Amino acid sequence: MIQINLKLINVFLVAAEQRSFTRAAEITNRSPSAVSMQIKEIEAQIGMALFLRTQQGVVLTPEGQILYDTAHNAIGTVEIGLERLGRIAAARNGNIRLACAPTLAATRLPDILVDFKKRFPNSAVSVIEVSPRASVKFLKDQMVEFYVGPELPDQTDILFEAVAEDPLVAFIPQNFDPGHPVLALKDLCDTPVIMLDKQTAIRSLTEEILAGEAQALNVQYEVHTAQTALALATGGLGIAILPGIAVPTVPPDGMRIVRIDHPRARRWLGIMTLKGSAPHRYSETLMDMVRLDLKRYYKAQ
């Protein structure tokens, strides 16, 4: 395989575009004789002439035109890549960009960010609140450095680090409380149920469990956020099925939190990153704080 120094390729491109070794020498800060010698070096490595020398200057041979077209396109692609990396580096300078699942953004993330700001008062953190599936595009486009939320299976370009297991729970008002220490989903079939909408991972998990048991819930309220589900359940309108992370550690008076009894009634929470990415050094610290907070939170439950 022929291996040619990129600096020589650059000299060749300038000479081809200027049609003159003299003008190429001026642009590249070389002497005309040095440019001529470097072109001869490329021609010797390839084994064919790249230029025709004339009294008016130089013109590309057919073989030289092939090299010019290929090298010009390749250099253009490299320049686009370097420009993109420059924008990414500028955006990261002093800033951390992360995406977070809504339930975590409303519960654990605020305390984590407060502690982080105390440690690094000059830091700036940008947060985008999105679903796990939507986060994939943000990661691939490098709009965020990492995502905090539930696992999203079957992602070939994404790495998921499991940190803590989050149970599926029922948030039960007193008027619908059967008094059991744990509940199966089938126990709620005749009760008004409040659930998150079908775009959420927790709704998909719940319906998969129900399908396996050939059961269906009486869903009276379908909402977009866990906060709305909590408010409706607190008002006595039904039992809310939610991820454990979404419910308050200490429930309000007249409310009870009960785990759903099923082997699959749980999901992993953790950190998603793009394969091969190199996080900002502050991002590594913030990810460590996320890991520590989630582990402590679930250990205390």
UniProtKB/TrEMBL annotation:
Q: Name one GO cellular component term.
A: cytosol
**What PANTHER family does this protein's entry cite?**
HTH-TYPE TRANSCRIPTIONAL REGULATOR YBHD, NITROGEN ASSIMILATION TRANSCRIPTIONAL ACTIVATOR-RELATED
On the tree of life, the source organism's domain of life is Bacteria
UniProt keywords (A-Z) are: DNA-binding, Transcription, Transcription regulation
Molecular-function GO terms, alphabetical: DNA binding; DNA-binding transcription factor activity
Q: Which Pfam families match?
A: HTH_1, LysR_substrate
Q: Which residues form the HTH lysR-type domain?
A: 4-61
Q: Spell out the family assignment given in the record's similarity comment.
A: Belongs to the LysR transcriptional regulatory family.
Protein's UniProt name: LysR family transcriptional regulator
